[in-house]
Specification:
The structure is a single chain. This protein has about 725 residues and is mainly beta. Among the domains are: about 15-75, Cadherins (Immunoglobulin-like, Sandwich); about 85-185, Immunoglobulin-like; about 195-300, Cadherins (Immunoglobulin-like), CATH 2.60.40; about 305-405, Immunoglobulin-like, CATH 2.60.40.60; about 410-525, Immunoglobulin-like (Sandwich). Helices cover about 10% and strands about 30% of the residues. It has 5 helices and 37 strands. Strand 25 and strand 26 (about 365) form a beta hairpin. Mean pLDDT is about 80; it is low at about 530-535, about 575-580, about 600-620, about 620-635 and about 715-718. Keywords: Calcium, Cell adhesion, Cell membrane, Cleavage on pair of basic residues, Glycoprotein, Membrane, Metal-binding, Phosphoprotein, Repeat, Signal, Transmembrane, Transmembrane helix. GO terms for molecular function: beta-catenin binding; cadherin binding; calcium ion binding. This is Cadherin-12. One of its GO terms (cellular component) is catenin complex.
């Protein structure tokens, strides 16, 4: 209830309310100031509300007092039961645990106010699960209540837990949850055989390593606590069998270690022990965690193949033994009660087996071909024996035949030797150590002896020393050797073996004489130095050869220069005659001045050079002439010069720079015609220029020039 001191009760004051829940949860009477809740309140939803109230004048609407704030607190009542938020629970505890063993702790939550009354005070109790388990009423810890709970008796337990508020008093609210408890296994039970004796029947033909039977011990435990190990107790028959554990079924698998024979022994008895692999020391007092049973095995008689007297046969025979010689025999027997005859034959696999034959009834092995130890030293094949009464029952044995050696090959030098001796060698010096080899194979090992042949032992050059260990040394007998006298020596060496009959061979050893230094190091074994004069060293010989080479080079250069000079002089003379004009000091002019160019060709248009050669440059190569039609007679000189100009412009052989070319035209009908020798049908050597002297003083210079050429030509015979 709100009330202002200014309120006289005449209705002039109006009360207003604002804040949390104003108008929705709470309302106020504007005239009296009474505050009412208009809906149910839940402390767990909102424990308090903050509101603001004010008194205002009804007429002026102005506040009569400042706004005041107040809090409405929701008082709790016990309207929420305890709840197990993590339930239902799952727990486990080892079997055979003592009383009070911890299992699990449960917890219930009450939404009521724990600070007000006992609404949130929870007490735990067991509604279902006694007398096996108990719970602490305050903490909710569950523990075992009975000792020695056995998993093999009961494994699963379901416990119903209650949590009640108000301290468990009458009228309190309660909640429940379920706890599923499992007893885990411990190794508290030993393995036990369901019976004391196991009977097994095994055929005598069972293979070694095969499983011949199974036995099983029972262990009520679970998992690794139920794993069993089986062992055969040492005793009668136990050494023929073995036992292992099947990891999936925990059965004992009996296997055969050795072959069985009904004719030798018909029954075996032994004991088998079963024990746990993982023991728990807490239960040792219960007793030994193992059990023992007896196994009796009866061997069944079966029709078996023949049995050879040996697992393998080894025989020996000399090479070149005559065909049909018996070298040994194999024996097999039928050990069954009704003994049957045995037949033998060779297991043919390749052509090697055809070297031998076997008697089908007796089992004797004989040679079928001549044997050669050097070709094949050992033969390996199989013999098969079968029962006459049942040919399908066969057995096989391996036969090895070693071919013994007969001394038929002489010993020889093992490797080719390159033996040399120094010119300055001393007597008794070992120059080579030799060894020998023999294709024959002696059981006691070969011994070789070395000596010189009779003709070599009389020569004073070399000797041989036998070291008695299958080696020998070649020794010198002279004081020095000369390559000039003899470069190669051939030494015949006789080698004998120690086998019977004795075999020997003569081997020729080639010894080369070499030049050595004072320490005996070989410097040269070639023959080029043998023919050098005495006292002439290698350095002097090289100097002489160099001098000879230098003189030859000088002579060749001199001859080449002389030939080049003659060629240049002849070429210059020919060029002066054909392409150049003689220069002289007389002043002149007109037609007698021939210094600029050869005007003769222009004076006769019919005589045109087939091969145009520039007069201001030296031609490099000879170009093929171009045949052009001569200018027509009585043609204007201007047209003729333009034609020549055009020909030079389009000439590909012309140089790529400007050059001076002089053109002139004298006309037709010259008495002397052309003086050029380009069109001449004869060579220079065949022409006679004496007629130039008869042409007058104008041709005097030409007559003198060609006259000098004739006198200069060395090839012309006068």
């Amino acid at each position: 209830k709100l009330h202002s001191d200014l309120d006289k009760g005449v209705g002039t004051v109006k009360y207003t309310l604002s804040g949390d829940g104003a108008g929705t949860v709470f309302t106020i009477d504007e005239t009296t100031g009474d505050i009412h809740a208009i809906r149910s309140l839940d402390r767990e939803e909102k424990p308090f509300y903050t509101l603001r109230a004010q008194a205002v004048d009804v007429d002026t609407k102005k506040p009569l007092e400042p706004e005041s704030e107040f809090i409405i607190k929701v008082q709790d009542i016990n309207d929420n039961e305890p709840k197990f938020l993590d339930g239902p629970y799952v727990a486990s505890v080892p079997e055979m645990s003592p009383v009070g063993a911890y299992v699990l702790q449960v917890k219930a939550t009450d939404a009521d106010d724990p600070t007000y009354g006992n609404s949130a005070r929870v007490v735990y109790s067991i509604l279902q699960g006694q007398p096996y388990f108990s719970i602490d009423p305050k903490t909710g810890v569950i523990r075992t209540a009975l000792p020695n709970m056995d998993r093999e008796v009961k494994e699963q337990y379901q416990v119903l837990i209650q949590a009640k508020d108000m301290g468990g008093q009458l009228g309190g609210l309660a909640g429940t949850t379920t706890v599923n408890i499992t007893l885990t296994d411990v190794n508290d039970n030993p393995p036990r055989f369901p019976k004391s004796i196991f009977h097994l029947k095994v055929p005598e033909t069972s293979h070694v390593g095969s499983a011949i039977g199974r036995i099983r011990a029972v262990d009520p435990d679970f998992g690794k606590n139920a794993e069993i190990e089986y062992n055969i107790v040492p005793g009668d028959g136990g050494n023929l069998f073995d036992i292992t554990t099947d990891e999936y079924t925990q059965e004992g698998v009996i296997k055969l270690k050795k072959p069985l024979d009904f004719e030798t022994k018909k029954a075996y008895t032994f004991k088998v022990e079963a024990s746990n692999l993982h023991l728990d020391h807490r239960f040792h007092s219960v007793g030994p965690f193992k059990d023992t049973a007896t196994v009796k095995i009866n061997v069944l008689d079966m029709d078996e193949p023949p049995v050879f007297s040996k697992p393998m046969y080894t025989m020996e025979v000399y090479e070149d033994t005559p065909v049909g010689t018996i070298i040994g025999a194999v024996t097999a027997q039928d050990l069954d009660a009704g003994s049957s005859s045995v037949r033998y034959f060779i297991d043919w696999k390749n052509d090697v087996d055809s070297y031998f034959t076997i008697d089908a009834a007796e089992g004797t092995i004989a040679t079928n071909q001549l044997l050669d130890r050097e070709s094949t030293a050992q033969y390996n094949f199989s013999i098969i024996a079968s029962k006459v009464s049942n040919p399908l029952l066969t057995s096989k044995v391996n036969v090895i035949i070693n071919v013994l050696d007969v001394n038929e090959f002489p010993p020889e030098i093992s490797v080719p030797y390159e033996t040399s001796v120094c010119e300055n060698a001393k007597p008794g010096q070992v120059i080579q150590t030799i060894t020998a080899a023999d294709k024959d194979l002696s059981p006691a090992g070969q011994r070789f002896s070395f000596k010189l042949s009779s003709e070599a032992s009389n020569k004073p050059n070399f000797t041989i020393h036998d070291y008695r260990n299958n080696t020998a040394g070649i020794e010198t007998r002279r004081n020095g050797y000369s390559r000039r006298q003899q470069e190669l020596y051939f030494l015949p060496v006789v080698i004998e073996d120690s086998s019977y009959p004795v075999q020997s061979s003569t081997n020729t050893l080639t010894i080369r004489v070499c030049r050595c230094d004072s320490d005996g190091t070989i410097q040269s074994c070639n023959v080029e130095a043998i023919f050098l004069p005495v006292g002439l060293s290698t350095g002097a010989l090289i100097a002489i050869l160099l001098c000879i080479v230098i003189l030859l080079v000088i002579v060749v250069l001199y001859v080449a220069l002389r030939r080049q000079k003659k060629k240049d002089t002849l070429m210059t003379s020919k060029e002066d005659i054909r392409d150049n004009v003689i220069h002289y000091d007389d002043e002149g002019g007109g037609e007698e001045d021939t210094q600029a160019f050869d005007i003769g060709a222009l004076r006769n248009p019919k005589v045109i050079e087939d091969n145009k050669i520039r007069r201001d440059i030296k031609p490099d190569t000879l170009r093929f002439p171009r045949h052009r039609p001569p200018a027509e007679d009585n043609t204007d000189i201007r047209d003729f010069i333009n034609q020549r100009l055009q020909e030079n412009d389009v000439d590909p052989s012309a140089p790529p720079y400007d050059s001076l070319a002089t053109y002139a035209y004298e006309g037709n009908g010259s008495v002397a015609e052309s003086l050029s020798s380009i069109d001449s049908l004869t060579t220079e050597a065949d022409q006679d220029y004496d007629y130039l002297s008869d042409w007058g003083p104008r041709f005097k210079i030409l007559a003198d020039m060609f006259g000098e050429e004739e006198s200069y030509n060395p090839d012309k015979v006068t």
